[in-house]
Write a structure and sequence with these properties.
With 220 residues, the protein is mainly alpha-helical. 77% of the residues lie in helices and 0% in strands. The radius of gyration is 20 Å and the shape is elongated. The two termini are 22 Å apart. The chain crosses the membrane at residues 43-64, 76-93, 113-135, 156-176, 182-204.
């Protein structure tokens, strides 16, 4: 019994570390916040010029993209990130409203929340898909009722993350508060992701029975 408990505890620690490393997303979260910050700073110090803000955001996004490519990031992911920055700049230039630079981010958060909710509803919670794939367990976690339930509950934390952003971003966008949107982008990127990872890990472990062998060992 003691040996079994020690094995379970060791597995839990290993799972936690893997979970944090996989979903922490520190680099990607910081990367995502830098172009909007560059836009906000360029817009403000450039005399509220959307052109200067757009150039600053695209320049920073390109530098980050190039650096990530050198570090081995997937080209498609880098391209999508850069296109999101470019799209935001083009929309703001088109409408003449600097706050519209953040529209693609509002849309992506709304879409992400919807996709996560659908995944929970159809019993394919995205948290399980991502973690199960990364741990090399494929679809086996779905045949474990305890893991399926735990991943579903923990996935709601990620839905909440997107909902929090929308609750802050939408009112600020409606009043055209470009400076406040820039600050909110920083606060609600890496710090919020870190909190989301910690809370979803807690929800995941709390939902599993005490004798469950862990994320790496689905009961099939």
């Amino acid at each position: 019994m003691t040996h079994q408990r020690e094995t379970t505890d060791e597995g839990a620690v290993d799972d936690r570390d893997s979970f944090m490393q996989l979903l922490g997303g520190r680099n990607s979260a910081i990367d995502a916040s830098l172009p909007p910050v560059a836009f906000g700073l360029g817009w403000f110090f450039g005399g509220e010029s959307i052109e200067i803000g757009g150039v600053a955001a695209i320049a920073v996004g390109s530098i980050i993209g190039g650096y990530r490519l050198v570090k081995g990031a997937r080209p498609l992911a880098v391209l999508f990130s850069l296109l999101a920055v470019l799209l935001g700049a083009l929309i703001a230039l088109r409408t003449g409203d600097a706050s519209d630079f953040f529209l693609p981010r509002l849309a992506s958060n709304a879409l992400s929340a919807l996709v996560w909710m659908i995944s929970i509803g159809v019993r394919w919670p995205l948290l399980g898909v991502v973690v199960g794939t990364a741990l090399g367990r494929g679809k086996t976690w779905r045949r474990d009722p305890d893991l399926l339930k735990a991943y579903s509950r923990a996935s709601w934390v990620w839905v909440g993350q997107y909902a929090v952003r929308l609750a802050v971003f939408i009112p600020l966008w409606l009043v055209g508060a470009t400076g406040a949107l820039t600050i909110a982008q920083v606060v609600l990127t890496w710090p919020l992701v870190a909190l989301c990872v910690a809370v979803s890990w807690w929800a995941l472990r709390k939902s599993l029975p005490a004798d469950h062998p862990g994320l790496r060992h689905p009961r099939t």
